[in-house]
Specification:
Largest sheet: 7 strands, antiparallel
Order of helices and strands: HHEEEEEEEH
Strand content: 15-25%
Radius of gyration: 22 Å
Shape: extended
Number of helices: 3
Distance between the termini: 53 Å
């Protein structure tokens, strides 16, 4: 009986690993194709006075470089997606992802998020919980909607958990805190009871 269960579990793990590898390879290939497809036309439309052989050479080189860069980028994003997928419970789905800036405790709120602003942090809303990630693959914390309270302080979103304030965030451009506050109330009403796994660390604010 135990051997049968163990064999089934190993078979499911192997199947999951094969599926994961297939998704990563597919993203790598399509990333290369998509990048090459955008680079080659630019090279083909070179100056009229350029010899044909030189134009073709430049086009091939640009396509190759674009394909390599796109494949690397596609693989990197696919691996991040797999890390995020592994963080989901059975039946849980990722709903939305929001780029955010962390506001240090006691510090004045920075101006609203601008399109060119950089941040390594993002909040992810799932059907069961809210997660904070760094670089889209390093989990900072994860809490069930039932454990959280979201409020808006102007253009700053405040997330409070069982032990107090988890973070104050400036949301990405074109998104106001009230939208996420309202969404959290709906999700909290639907969320299953019981705590969800939480990352042991809190996000840095430096």
């Amino acid at each position: 009986m135990d051997e049968t269960v163990e064999g089934t579990a190993e078979g499911e793990a192997d199947a999951a690993g094969v599926a994961r590898g297939r998704r990563v390879r597919r993203a790598t290939v399509w990333g290369g194709i998509a990048s090459a497809a955008t680079v080659v036309p630019l090279a083909v439309e070179g100056p009229d006075h350029m010899p044909m052989w030189l134009n073709v050479t430049i086009s091939l080189a640009a396509g190759l470089m674009g394909a390599i860069g796109g494949a690397v980028g596609g693989r990197r994003e696919a691996i991040k997606a797999e890390v995020r997928r592994d963080a989901l419970d059975e039946g849980e789905r990722e709903l939305s992802r929001y780029r955010v800036k962390l506001v240090p405790e006691g510090a004045p709120a920075p101006p609203p998020f601008k399109e060119q602003d950089y941040t390594s942090y993002s909040l992810t809303a799932t059907t069961s919980r809210l997660q904070l990630w760094e670089f889209d693959y390093l989990p900072q914390w994860s809490h069930s909607w039932r454990e959280l309270s979201l409020t808006a302080e102007g253009h700053v979103l405040v997330v409070t958990g069982p032990q107090g304030v988890l973070g104050r965030f400036v949301l990405e451009r074109m998104l106001v805190p009230e939208e996420l506050v309202l969404a959290s109330r709906r999700l909290r009403a639907r969320a299953p009871r019981g705590p969800s796994p939480s990352a042991p660390t809190t996000p840095r604010t430096d």
